[in-house]
Amino acid sequence: MKNEIKIITKNWGQINPRRIEEYISAGGYVALKKFIEKMTPQSAVEEIKISGLCGRGGAGFSTGVKLESVQKEPASSADGEKYFICNLDESEPGTYKDRSIVDNDPHLLLEGIIISSLIIGAKKTFIYINGNYRKQAEILGQAVEQAREKKFIGEKILNSKYNLDIEIFSGAGAYICGEETALINSIEGNRGEPKMRPPFPTQCGLFGRPTAVNNAETIANIPWIILNGGKAYAKIGSKKSPGTKLFIINGAVKNPCVAEVPLGVKLEDLIEKYAGGMQEGKEFWFAQVGGSSGRLVLQKDLKMKMEYDRDGKIPLGSGAILVVDKTMDIHELLLSWASFFRRESCGKCAPCREGTFRLYEIAQRLKDGEISERDKTALEDILWTLRNTSFCPLGKFAATAFSDAIEKLKLLQKYE
Amino acid sequence: MQIKINNKKYKTENEETIFGVCARNKIKIPGLCGMKDFHEGVCRICVVECGGRLMTSCNTEIREGMEIITESENISRARRINLELLWADHAGKCATCKKNQLCELQKLAEEYKIENFHFVPRKGEMTSREELDLVRDNWSRVVTENENPCVSRNSEFCVECRRCVNICPEKKFGFNYRAGDVVVGTPYEKVLDCGFCGECVRVCPTAALTDQNDFFKIIKDLDDLRKFSIAILDWEISEKIFDQIKNITAEKDLKKILFDLGFEKIINLEEKDKDREDEIIKNIKTDYAQKEKINPKNIKTFFISSKIHKKAEKNEHLDYILSEREAARLVRDKEKMIEGKIKI
Q1: To the nearest whole angstrom, how far is the Cα of A340 from the nearest Cα of chain B?
Q2: A380 close contact with B: CB closer than 8 A
């Protein structure tokens, strides 16, 4: 493919991720030097705002606005502390983009983290990593040590006035801890469950201090923006959400992969060009965009543009794409979604705690092919209450894929 | 600030919640998890509609120009489904329950006319072995604990409202496990060991936390004509008892009510006795044994008090400690017996 724009994956496979020297000789930590020598936090945030970069974790909130609001937030406590947190608690089924970033280029992520932390004025930064990512935690730990030796982290970074300490905090592998308030609870030592918003973490986050929580992939874009400017970034990809995105294409495709593609690409192209099309003898049925909590895309909608759009029908989520062919046992898939959410609900609010449990029961009966009239109304009721009354997005996500499957694939038709 | 509730304008103060404004203006919103100062928003029953979206009223702060609706088809649907979901996981043993007719879940269930076991598969509907395993697995997590002297715990009745977790001054309760397996428990699932202030029992909406007592023995001793039963009333208990029984009896004289229950003598402790209550109680049995010329073994003393930690300190001078809730339960059962509804 010609004219490929690579921001995050430019070093993948080219350098040894364990050695900081190779990253530096590939042009690493230049952005950090530029930021320290030539920019102020205010001008840097302005560049990020111009770039139009938005959160890659799923919500698609503008990164510039988020960083600016923490930057402007008056320090609420006497010590004037602010925190930056890198969200590496990647646990959406079928998603491994953040893991790939750490595996291939940990220093890119680290550079992004350092710049973002300095922008908001944080002196302490946490990298919240999924508890199952043991190897990645080790790679990151090594990277932090190397960066500390080179004076990219620590006191008086590169002989400037900036100080920063980075701590790697390993979670316990709970899906809910990817939600920012639950993540903050987890670092504070509390049970990993969401908190009421407002107050938003940008005002009152970790230990009551203003806190910015950003997804690892989002942060990995920041060195490029600092180096090349916001305007250059805004030209890449779609107008609504500029930049590139890591897509993880799985399922019945020839060549499952992680691909960095400018946003605004058609789903069809992703499957055909990047993943090599469908496997031999398999017929496309639908694709699920955004992991277990994602919506389903049928053949007729394959031309949809992949971009972060508040009014868009199909949210991108984490960027995981599961391609399903017609030989798939759909009931098995439904059961796996239901069991995932039954296991991963934190148990805080009634609709999610009890609803996901009952949903799992019904999915099991659906698989056995014997659901009753009562089950059908119960299913409708559960999905409705999950969508409308659950405490945090997890409950809402639990219902999306399920209701989509029932609606679009007409699963309950034979019971009518 | 000014907001609209059900198309009527209301003045509000800063940092008030929707629930707070409604409570102040006597607009009824049901709820199961909230209590004074603590609003977790976990039961999702207090939902109201604002701008076409459902939101919990108890922890949503008001904003200028909000237009809130407190009753609509969607709202009652949400409340009904969430109640049904909670009920499906509830023991539902109302007839024998200690909290029968005092239970908040039961009251709401009645109010919203819920189908109690809408989500629970019937015997004929269970298809696979896994299903049965699941049910078994779910029930295996039920915690019943009667080993501590004061508080009886049974998670079968629990609706995970977190009132006990929030109110406990010693932070003895917390959540164990996750998702549908969540259970309110003690650290490392040890026997509850605390100062037994009884606050958790007071706030529990269901019978998950109740007073520990041998109720049948109490009734037997009260009804036994050979036994001389003395009630010792703590100094500010009578109001609390009346608060508990206001819906049950029209009788306003506590003395008469207690005599009806089978007590032979009532002693009121006064405020000045606060520090000497142990001393007073110690002498009661010997005093009455001399006065009434009965064997001290046939005298039974009942201390009616909110200090349920006393239950741990039973001795030969003091046979039973009853909280205001248990006294109310005695009254309630008596009333029903007179009406001929139940047999004890």
Answers
A1: 11
A2: no
User: Å from A357 to nearest chain B CA?
Assistant: 6
Whether residues A365 and B125 touch (CB distance < 8 A) is answered with yes
Domain end residue (candidates: B118, B149, B180) = B118
Q: Does B180 touch chain A (CB under 8 A)?
A: yes
CATH of the domain at B261: 3.40.50.1780
> Any residues with CB less than 8 A from the CB of B315 and at least 6 apart, and which?
none
Total domains in chain A come to 3
* Gap between the Cα atoms of B32 and A163, Å rounded: 48
* Half-sphere exposure (Cβ direction) of B176: Cα atoms closer than 13 Å: 14
Residues linked to residue B49 through DSSP beta bridges, in sequence order: B54, B69
How much of chain B is helix, strand and coil, in % rounded to 5? 40, 15, 40
Residue B131 inside a domain? The answer is no
- Assigned token pair, B256: 């008469």
Please tell me the distance in Å from B156's CA to the nearest CA on chain A: 14
Same domain flag for A350 and A391: yes
Give A125 to chain B, closest Cα distance, Å. 28
In three-state secondary structure terms, B318 is: strand
| B174 to A372: CB separation less than 8 angstroms, yes or no | no
Domain boundary among A325, A356, A371: A325
My answer on whether B191 and B240 are in the same domain is no
- Gyration radius of chain A's alpha carbons: 22
What pLDDT was estimated at residue B118?
82
* In the block, residue with structure tokens 């079928």: A94
Pair (B19, B89) in one structural domain: yes
- pLDDT tens per residue across span A315-351: 888 889 999 999 989 999 999 999 999 999 998 999 9
* Residue B125 in domain: no
Residues A36 and A165 in one domain: yes
Residue matched to tokens 């794409």: A321
Q: Is residue B126 part of a domain?
A: no
Task: State the pTM of this model.
Answer: 0.89
Residues A321 and A382 grouped into a single domain: no
**Per residue in A60-99, pLDDT tens?**
889 999 999 999 888 666 678 899 999 999 988 889 999 9
> Which letter does DSSP use for residue B141 in this model?
T
Which residues of chain B lie closer than 8 angstroms to A175, CB-CB? none
Q: Give the dihedral of Cα atoms B198, B201, B203, B204; nearest 10 deg.
A: 160
Which residues on chain B are in Cβ contact (under 8 Å) with A350?
42-45, 82, 85-86, 159-160
B115 at the A interface (CB within 8 A)?
Answer: no
Q: Which portions of chain B are predicted below pLDDT 70?
A: 123, 127-140, 247-250, 340-344
Report the number of distinct structural domains present in chain B: 3
Q: Which residue out of B63, B81, B158, B181 would a mutagenesis test of the A interface target, given it has the greatest number of A Cβ atoms within 10 Å?
A: B81
Strand B151-154 with B47-50, pairing? unpaired
User: Is B134 a member of any domain?
Assistant: no
- Pick the last residue of a domain from A279, A301, A325: A325
Interchain CB contact of A382 with B (< 8 Å): yes
**CB-based contact (8 Å) between A355 and chain B?**
yes
- Whether A140 has a pLDDT exceeding 80, the answer reads yes
CB–CB of B160 and A353 under 8 A? yes
- CATH code (residue A120): 3.40.50.11540
Interface of A with B in 254-293 (CB under 8 A): none
Domain of A342 in residue numbering reads as 330-415
Which residue of chain A comes nearest to B87, CA vs CA? A354
CB pairs under 8 A between A and B: 114
Is the Cβ–Cβ distance between B5 and B70 less than 8 Å?
A: yes
Domain shared by A48 and A142, yes or no: yes
Res. A2 pLDDT band, cuts 50 70 90: very low
Q: Where in the sequence is the domain holding B196, given as residue range(s)?
A: 140-211
B207 and B230 part of one domain: no
Same-domain pairing of A319 and A337: no
